[in-house]
Amino acid sequence: MDKAVITNKLTKKFGDFVATNEITFDVAQGEIFGFLGANGAGKTTAIRMLCGLLKPTSGDARIAGFDVYRQTEQIKQVIGYMSQKFSLYEDLTVRENIRFYGGIYGLNRADLKAKSDQIIEQLNLGSVADKLVASLPLGWKQRLAFSVALVHNPRIVFLDEPTGGVDPITRRQFWDMIYEAADRGTTIFVTTHYMDEAEYCNRVSIMVDGRIKALDTPSGLKRSFGTDSMDGVFQILARGTSTK
After folding, report:
1. How many whole angstroms separate alpha carbon 241 and alpha carbon 244?
2. Residues 227 and 233: beta-carbon distance below 8 Å
3. pTM passes above 0.85
4. 218-232: string of b/e by CB count within 10 Å (b at 16+)?
5. Are 147 and 130 in contact (CB under 8 A)?
6. Residues in domain ABC transporter (predicted)?
7. What are the two backbone dihedrals, phi and then psi, of residue 137, each rounded to the nearest 5 degrees?
8. pLDDT at residue 161 in the model
9. β-bridge partners, 58
10. In whole angstroms, how far apart are CA 115 and each of 5, 63, 79, 131, 142?
11. Per residue in 211-220, pLDDT tens?
12. Residue range of the domain that includes 83
């Protein structure tokens, strides 16, 4: 399969602090790739470099074939991004948010209308389409934000802690949307600190103190570390011990 993301010893330092330390991995086109780790492990720093929002200190990375140092504008055109904090404008309506972000990505008027209607119908938001986003429950907001991140049919979508603060049922619905996007060929790069969400990914990279400590399928990781849960894998890595 084609590689959507390729990194080699990608490093980011802030003064003497090393936020990400020589991380090396690749992500296949259409893969659901999980970046797992505790808060402060370096996940958000890594995702911001890959999105072209933060310049690396050293190392290399290519996103959809584009270089993270020299081709950040091209990268931004082929990716979608959903930030850790809610990323839509709460003082705009549902419909206005969809059209605003679609316009940023260059959709014409006909496509904007078609996409707006499609998203509103898929999310069953017809009754609130012309209400301010601020009035929506958090779960609805997050599902809308994910749909907006896909409005321009990006090759890769980066999701930074997308289900933080939502209830388990909404989390499950959100992951159903992720699977549907991946089935259409979109690469999903998702950071999370929820151990159970790692089970939903094709492969998982576990970050500890800015380093990738393990990378494999969920079943492969559990087998390698002699445990029956991803939480067990993470606890072993956090203690600095492994069965390898």
Report:
1. 9
2. yes
3. yes
4. beebbeebebeebee
5. no
6. 5-234
7. -65, 155
8. 85
9. 11
10. 27, 25, 17, 18, 17
11. 999 999 999 9
12. 3-238
Examine residue 56 and state whether it is found in any structural domain, yes or no. Answer: yes
CATH number where 119 lies: 3.40.50.300
- Please give the average per-residue pLDDT across 171-193, as a whole number: 92
| DSSP one-letter string for the chain | --EEEEEEEEEEEETTEEEEEEEEEEEETT-EEEEE--TTSSHHHHHHHHTTSS--SEEEEEETTEETTT-HHHHHHHEEEE-SS--S-TTSBHHHHHHHHHHHTT--HHHHHHHHHHHHHHTT-GGGTTSBGGGS-HHHHHHHHHHHHTTT--SEEEEESTTTT--HHHHHHHHHHHHHHHHTT-EEEEEE--GGGGGGSSEEEEEETTEEEEEE-HHHHHHHTT-SSHHHHHHHHHTT----
